[in-house]
Amino acid sequence: MSLDLTPDRNPDHPVAPQFPARWSPRSFTDRALTEAEVMSLLEAARWAPSASNHQPWRFIWALRGEAEFDAIRDSLTGINPVWAGKAGLLVVVASKDRVTNREGAEVANRTAGFDTGAAWMSLALQAQAMGLVSHAMGGFDGAKLAAAIGLPEGHTLHCVVAVGAQGPVADLPEELQAREKPNGRKPVVEIARHGRF
Asked: In this prediction, what percent of the chain has a pLDDT beyond 70?
């Protein structure tokens, strides 16, 4: 979809085109992803910024056709399994809750979610650079997903990301077809203040 046809995706201030061009489609083709492609996505995430270089993000991934993919898909809720099950790759995004501080004590990592969000964005932008699309979902059964991936204690689940080649809108269930387009963003004046709230 051309961004020229969607005025709500035109930035108000100059930015690199990768930012407004990235969106979260739900329609995927049946194109399989290779393990080498997955490694490129994870390598991009690896280089995300991280407080004190703790790198708390954890990614558990599976390719379509693998039993692990099916287990992750089956933990999704609502209509998510219908469309996400057609992606070439599902990635569970989690984070390690605790870190060892400079004094050697185990403490809560208060920036774990923040850092993990940066890693997910790196993965999303790498997918886009590779001609793929990605869509993160919060609609999952936490207990079922934790069991499916063997989530260790002391970790938090954040989302499941579907990655693959973008498919046609007509391949989606009718109820999703109208939503299969890039959406806009709040203006900067709604999300940022100079100096104080």
From this structure: 96
